[in-house]
Specification:
The structure holds 2 protein chains of 2 kinds. By secondary structure, chain A is of the alpha+beta class. Chain A has one domain. Chain A has 5 helices and 4 strands; from the N terminus they run βαβααααββ. Chain A has a 3-stranded antiparallel β-sheet. The longest helix of chain A has 21 residues. Chain B is mainly alpha-helical. In chain B, the strands form 4 sheets. In chain B, strands 1-2-3 form a 3-stranded antiparallel β-sheet, with no helix packed on it. A two-stranded antiparallel ribbon of chain B has the order 4-5. The chains are: A alpha+beta, B mainly alpha. Strand 1 of chain A pairs antiparallel with strand 8 of chain B. Chain A: One of its GO terms (biological process) is protein targeting to membrane. Chain A: It comes from Myotis myotis. Chain A: Keywords: Membrane.
Chain lengths: ~170, ~725
């Protein structure tokens, strides 16, 4: 039983080995940042629906918290004004703090849930928060149904060992 | 020479910002140097302090507006746009609070611009919530720095008023020495301040109104919400608080990327899936898969439609590249299509109305029209019906990338209109392109793809010739401005798809008009049924099913033309039972592969026979003349096929052909069925139910297509 260490960046670079599934933004409520919770069919068979939806909903919750207009954000703005925005050199904004939380959350989800299924969730901020991309490891999908979206017939390298081909 | 490579250094673009900076700093410095000492003596020392604070505020906001990233989107990576950018539609519609908003494809940045995003030609970037490009700060004003720009305007107005006011006070208190240096300088400063006050105050007032209304300058100037409802407003107070009190948005460029490592250990978890579910994924092309997985059509349909919406909706692959030949198609299609299709991300849920369950209904209905291969055989009569059915298949409706309003499938209307008119001209080109006999269909599909509701991205650079031709065909009435159209439910369009080109809508209307005219052409034809977009696929499926039944019931006759669905099935071949998903998926601009149909066609319809004889048939029954306005594609198949005993392989071959065309074909099929005379309906085989309406007799216009096939188009 081999343990493959997948470097996320490496997986992303080796696009030829990965199928990408994109989860689009949900603009039904305006320009607030939220993603569609609809289960993509390509993931059918790769991950349970509940897990996926829960992940996306949590992400949406984080973004809602980041964009929340409340007392804290107002005070932050006043402080910034008062210091002629020099405070931004020392302190990070509320939004950035939440983004860091999101990054940690995504990392954790990848480790616990997605990576064991041969999937990789990317941080949407890298793409301008337009889309959440899920990288699907073809090599590890050998045991899955043939109809998987990875489609690559060669992907069925069989078992977990195939993942080491990368 | 600094301008040789990369961006040219244009000093001209720095002139306004330099001038603004010089005037601002210079005038204020003079004010502080010459006026403030006297003021502090005569009035109060607080005056210079107050002015200093305001000036500092102006400078800070000016600097932030100038140097801050306005919210530039990074260019999309290649993997986001797997398809050629000239295949996907130019616009994608999304519903925001009940209002349809168009998202345009940005050819430079290679993604569909989010709402309120615009591409700045000066900066050559897409900017989030683009307001305008301000030359005075030499920067775009967007989501991140709009607040600073607004505050800059406010503070500058206050500053100008203060300078002018205090300067006036100084001058009035030193009237006796007007020729003195201080007074003269103060008067000069007052002149500059007074001169700049009018435009600055005007701009400030303008932006105050914009902020209160929740609009950007871009939206205001382009009149997007003129007379309409702005979906981005949350009320005056919320708008103001959002501008001033929200946390500054993060920048997207220049973010540090950390390398993260994840340990992936086998065994990999896989949720339990049934075979049926699994098969669904193979979208077009998997002819083999299709055959076996008829059951999963429904799910296939669903999945197809959902995954249709990719970030850049890959254009329906069915383009020329796919039609290298039946064989190649067969070989390539499966992998290509499935992979392509699978890569599509789920469509925006709000963008289209997905209608599940077609597979079940369509499967039954399609029985009589099965044996898509028949189409290729030249069962022109049958073909149209099956095609109509398939085109009406609800799966088409779930075309996410198209504007959801009454236009189900962009290609429906478009291709539909094209077929009859351009068949002649296109046939030759098509022929040269491929030689498989689909030429016409292909061309049409290509055209339809291009002119799909929203011209493809490639056409963005062009003038959307496709649509223009549409317009000429249809009543050139409306302008495709759907941006702020209320997303009211269209009574006659189950799909909330609106094509940016109203021609599609017209096409649809025309179809509706034509429906009543459809009349079964032969005894074997099924009773006429109005051809509608939404029912198209169902009809096609029904025709396919009927064909299958016929095949089983009686030995396949070579010249048998009672399979109206042949033609249709040929085209729609994919849809077959459960093809619905295919069509729906194909609805998505990128890919709608009619793979689903293939399974239906499995029962091998050897009905095609008499390719020659049937060529002119279009959709009618054998005895009926070439009346059926058959979908050009199917006809071409049949005529080319000329194999009376069309075997399953032929059907299969057809199907792969179809699939590549996928949305295009389907669309054309749909459009055909819709726009074309319901001759398609007549194509349905005699026995079994006549799900498709037969081609109408009255007002039928015959257009000859490739291979001698004639299409009847009900006028």
């Amino acid at each position: 039983m081999a343990t493959e260490v997948h470097n996320l960046q490496e997986l992303r670079r080796s696009a030829s080995l990965a199928t990408k599934i994109f989860i689009q933004r949900d603009y039904s409520d305006g320009t607030i940042c939220q993603f569609q919770t609809k289960f993509p069919p390509e993931l059918d068979g790769r991950i349970e629906r509940q897990l996926f939806e829960e992940t996306v909903k949590t992400l949406n919750g984080f973004y809602a918290e980041a964009e929340k207009i409340g007392g804290s954000s107002y005070l932050e703005g006043c402080l910034a004004c008062a210091t002629a925005y020099f405070i931004f050199l020392c302190m990070e904004t509320h939004y950035e703090k939440v983004l860091k939380k999101i990054t940690r959350y995504i990392q954790e989800q990848n480790e616990k849930i997605f990576a064991p299924r041969g999937l990789l969730l990317t941080d949407p901020v890298e793409r301008g928060m337009r889309v959440v991309s899920i990288y699907e490891d073809r090599c590890s999908s050998g045991s899955s149904s043939s109809g998987s979206s990875s489609s690559a017939s060669g992907s069925s390298s069989g078992g977990g060992g195939g993942a080491g081909s990368r | 020479m600094p301008a040789e490579s990369g961006k040219r250094f244009k000093p001209s673009k720095y002139v306004p910002v330099s001038a603004a900076a010089i005037f601002l700093v210079g005038a204020t410095t003079l004010f502080f140097a010459f006026t403030c000492p006297g003021l502090s003596r005569y009035v109060s020392p607080a005056v210079p302090i107050y002015n200093a604070i305001v000036f500092l505020f102006v400078l800070a906001n000016f600097s932030m507006a100038t140097f801050m990233d306005p919210g530039i989107f990074p260019r999309a990576e290649e993997d986001e746009d797997k398809e050629d950018d000239f295949r996907a539609p130019l616009y994608k519609t999304v519903e925001i609070k009940g209002i349809q908003v168009r998202m345009k494809w940005c050819a430079t940045c290679r993604f569909y611009r989010p709402p309120r995003c615009s591409h700045c030609s000066v900066c050559d970037n897409c900017v989030e919530e683009f307001d305008h490009h301000c030359p005075w700060v030499n920067n775009c004003i967007g989501r991140r720095n709009y607040r600073y720009f607004f505050l800059f305007l406010l503070s500058l107005t206050v500053h100008i008023m203060g300078v002018f006011g205090f300067g006036l006070l100084y001058v009035l208190s030193h009237v006796e020495e007007l020729s003195g240096v201080c007074t003269a300088v103060t008067m000069a400063v007052m002149c500059v301040a007074g001169l700049f006050f009018i435009p600055v105050a005007g701009l400030t007032g303008f932006h105050v109104v914009l902020v209160a209304r929740g609009r950007t300058t871009n939206e205001q100037v382009t009149g997007k919400f003129r007379g309409g409802v702005n979906p981005f407003t949350n009320g005056c107070c919320n708008n103001v608080s959002r501008v001033l009190c929200s946390s500054p948005a993060p920048r997207y460029l220049g973010r540090p990327k950390k390398e993260k490592t994840i340990v992936i250990r086998p065994p990999f978890l896989r949720p339990e899936v049934s075979d049926g579910q699994i098969t669904v994924k193979i979208m077009d092309n998997g002819i083999q898969g299709e055959l076996r997985r008829t059951k999963s059509k429904g799910s296939l349909e669903i999945t197809e439609s959902q995954s249709a919406d990719a970030e850049p909706p890959p254009p329906p692959k069915p383009d020329l590249s796919r039609y290298t030949g039946l064989r190649t198609h067969l070989n390539l299609a499966a992998n290509e299509d499935s992979s392509l299709l699978s890569k599509d991300s789920p469509p925006t849920p709000t963008m289209y109305k997905y209608r599940p369950g077609y597979s079940s209904s369509s499967t039954s209905a399609a029985m009589p029209h099965s044996s898509s291969a028949k189409l290729s055989r030249g069962d022109s009569l049958k073909e149209p019906t099956s095609i109509a059915e398939s085109s009406r298949h609800p799966s088409y409706r779930s075309e996410p990338s198209l504007e959801p309003e009454s236009f189900r499938s962009p290609t429906f209307g478009k291709s539909f209109h094209f077929d009859p008119l351009s068949s002649g001209s296109r046939s030759s080109s098509l022929k040269s392109a491929q030689g498989t006999g689909f030429e016409l269909g292909q061309l049409q599909s290509i055209r339809s793809e291009g002119t799909t509701s929203t011209s493809y991205k490639s056409l963005a650079n062009q003038t959307r010739n496709g649509s223009l031709s549409y317009d000429s065909l249809l009543t050139p009435s409306d302008s495709p401005d759907f941006e702020s159209v209320q997303a009211g439910p269209e009574p006659d369009t189950p799909l909330g798809y609106t094509s940016p080109f109203l021609s599609a809508r017209l096409a649809q209307q025309r179809e509706a008009e034509r429906h009543p005219h459809l009349v079964p052409t032969g005894p074997a034809h099924q009773e006429p049924s109005p051809v509608r977009y939404d029912n198209l696929s169902r009809h096609i499926v029904a025709s396919l099913q009927e064909r299958e039944k016929l095949l089983r019931q009686s030995p396949p006759l070579p010249g048998r033309e009672e399979e109206p669905g042949l033609g249709d099935s040929g085209i729609q071949s994919t849809p077959g039972s459960g093809h619905a998903p295919r069509t729906s998926s194909s609805s998505d601009d990128s890919k709608r592969s009619p793979l689903g149909k293939t399974p239906l066609g499995r029962p091998a319809v050897p009905r095609f026979g008499k390719p020659d004889g049937l060529r002119g048939r279009g959709l009618g029954s054998p005895e009926s003349g070439p009346t059926a306005p058959y979908l050009g594609r199917s006809m071409s198949y049949s005529s080319q096929k000329a194999q009376p005993g069309v075997s399953e392989t032929e059907e299969v071959a057809l199907q792969p052909l179809l699939t590549p065309k996928d949305e295009v074909q389907l669309k054309t099929a749909y459009s055909k069925s819709n726009g074309q005379p319901k001759s398609i309906g007549s194509a349905s085989p005699g026995p079994g139910q006549p799900p498709l309406s037969s081609p109408t007799r009255g007002g039928v216009k015959k257009v000859s297509g490739v291979g001698g096939t004639t299409y009847e188009i009900s006028v």
